[in-house]
Specification:
37% strand, 2 helices, five-stranded mixed β-sheet, 22% helix
């Protein structure tokens, strides 16, 4: 599984590619509380293969992640990358 982690203030976004299960994921915690998980999104779940779907999800939550984070997850998916962690924002 690859993980791309963005932190800014009380917001933490984790996105990545789960190689064994072959899907992209996204979770958002705000102030330590889970605000979004792809597993609770009927339009995403484990079926959503479009990383850019999460751009709109994040914007609706008022979160803007670096574009290179989305691109990085898409590249991981295209190359079946696992065992990778990349940090962005205050996490880097």
């Amino acid at each position: 599984m690859s993980q791309h982690i963005f932190k800014r203030g009380l917001v933490e976004v984790r996105m990545g590619y789960d190689r064994p299960l072959d899907y992209v994921f996204c979770t958002v915690e705000i102030n330590g509380e889970m605000e979004y998980s792809n597993l609770g999104d009927e339009n995403a779940g484990t079926d959503c293969q479009d990383v850019m779907y999460y751009r709109d999800v994040l914007r609706k939550l008022g979160v803007d992640v670096p574009e290179d984070m989305l691109v990085g997850v898409a590249e991981d998916q295209a190359n079946c990358v696992g065992n990778k962690v990349k940090l962005y924002g205050e996490a880097s």
